[in-house]
Amino acid sequence: MSYAIELRGITKRFPLVLANDNISMRVKWGSVHALVGENGAGKSTLMKIIYGMQPATSGEIWVDGKHVQMHDPRDAIRLGIGMVHQHFMLVEPLTVTENVILGAEPTLGTSINYATARKRVAELIKQFNFDLDPDDKIEDLPVGLQQKVEILKTLYRGARILILDEPTAVLTPGETKELFDFLKNNYAKSGNSVIFISHKLHEVLEISDEISVIRDGKMIGSIPTQGATPETIARMMVGRDVVLRVDKAPPRPGEVALEVRGVTVVGENKKNLVHNVSFNVRSGEIVGIAGVEGNGQSQLVEAITGLLRPTSGEIRYLGKALSRPDAAKVTAAGVSHIPEDRNERGLVLEMSTQENLILGEQRSKDFCGPLGLLKLDVIERNAHELAQKYDVRPRSASLPAGRYSGGNAQKLIVAREMRKNPKILVASQPTRGVDIGAIEFIHKQIVDARDQGLAVLLVSADLGEVMNLSDRILVMFEGEVVGEVSAAEATEERLGLMMAGVRPEAKTA
Ligand SMILES: Nc1ncnc2c1ncn2[C@@H]1O[C@H](COP(=O)(O)OP(=O)(O)O)[C@@H](O)[C@H]1O
Ligand SMILES: [Mg+2]
């Protein structure tokens, strides 16, 4: 029997890293084969080799039983391989048809037979049941449909093997469901093959027939999805047992640490972004805010952390209100902030690890001498200590922050914010885009700090994370808190209804 793809001992050596180390893998026809591994494991590199975007240092690629040579993507396309990248390569002002035929125009004759192409595109749309029109403009389409256009491009070129590199990172749950339906029940079912890259375990379990795991550039193994569990895959990915559920003792809430009273934030077009929100967070408890992104959570966090002034309402930190609050005053009041966008607010990517680890504290007496001179030796030692304690890899005081993987970059922020010994922690999307080993670590840091008496406000669009970590959960919808439940009462259904704006009273009435 021939395989759609067979890799034999693929090795890819970059100047500084061995990105793929003797990887062998077989992808069956008519199946969805998931490739998983933590950030930096070597997944994208391997796929670029299969797609002819970069040469392997050594090893063989076999496609449908034949040993092949890839020089560029045209070779791959000729062999029936298509790839959808994480960042789309579409031309926004052009139509679906124009994008699909771009680069695949008939080479014989002088003019492109647009009508024929359009007809073919329409047929494919019908065959694969995409919610697209050949004449739609790309710029008018939501992300999920733009991705379908990328897929359509490969289908138009006759792809029988489709590679998707982290395709769901940009999709809503509904769009993901549609994509999965196409891949599994339509594309693979009719005999084609899919290589699906992800590090979201529940997705991998849902979509795939077989799972291959790579870690540090090495193939750890391939297993059938049937019978696999999140734990087994996580263990293969990380190389040890991973606690996917957060283990925590019951909370011992103390004094009110953070008090939010009637906070309203009015936006540019007079719309209330946050409307009359009130709640407390006590020391020693984690209060989670759940909600679909864009329902005022970001503005609420900005108000609490001093990044924006609420239009009305009051915020008290350890019992004190601040006059003319700003980020520095809020920090001085004992608040640490893990911002939702680590690349914009959390880190200065060009700056070194040690500089990033004292951001906001350059003038504190820990790091700055009486004459305003930075204590460089202390700053460097601080970096080494924190990198060790928070398991930041690689361990380096001088590496620019932009060179870390997502998980390690996030650990840097957590390390810096926890070092301040805060009384209140505002954690926004603390593990977004972070690999599971680092998620486990960050969750444990937050729970440990809560057990030491920290008041934690957790804001996350990841419902699983909110349910796992929080002692109490508030749900935001269109700027308001529509309900509160204890961790014990929280179910996905209950929170899901509130996230859609259904108030708990309305449900029971
Ligand atoms: N063009 C390149 N030059 C040097 N190193 C690279 C290049 N591309 C990837 N790497 C390195 O190879 C390793 C694997 O990267 P990648 O294949 O992107 O991982 P993944 O997709 O699993 O997150 C990483 O250490 C990455 O920094
Ligand atoms: Mg990748």
TrEMBL record:
ABC transporter domain residues are 5-241, 258-503
Subcellular localization, as worded in the UniProt entry:
Cell membrane
Q: Which SMART domains does the annotation name?
A: AAA
Instruction: Name the PROSITE patterns for this protein.
Output: ABC_TRANSPORTER_1 (PS00211), ABC_TRANSPORTER_2 (PS50893)
The protein's name: Simple sugar transport system ATP-binding protein
**Keywords per UniProt:** ATP-binding, Cell membrane, Membrane, Nucleotide-binding, Repeat, Sugar transport, Translocase, Transport
Tell me which InterPro entries the record gives.
AAA+_ATPase, ABC_carbohydrate_import_ATPase, ABC_transporter-like_ATP-bd, ABC_transporter-like_CS, P-loop_NTPase
What's the protein's topology in the membrane?
A: Peripheral membrane protein
- Domain of life, per lineage: Bacteria
Q: Which Gene3D superfamilies match?
A: P-loop containing nucleotide triphosphate hydrolases
Q: Name one GO cellular component term.
A: plasma membrane
Q: Which GO terms describe its molecular function?
A: ATP binding; ATP hydrolysis activity
Q: Does the keyword Cytoplasm apply?
A: no
Cross-referenced Pfam families: ABC_tran
Question: What is the organism field in this record?
Answer: Deinobacterium chartae
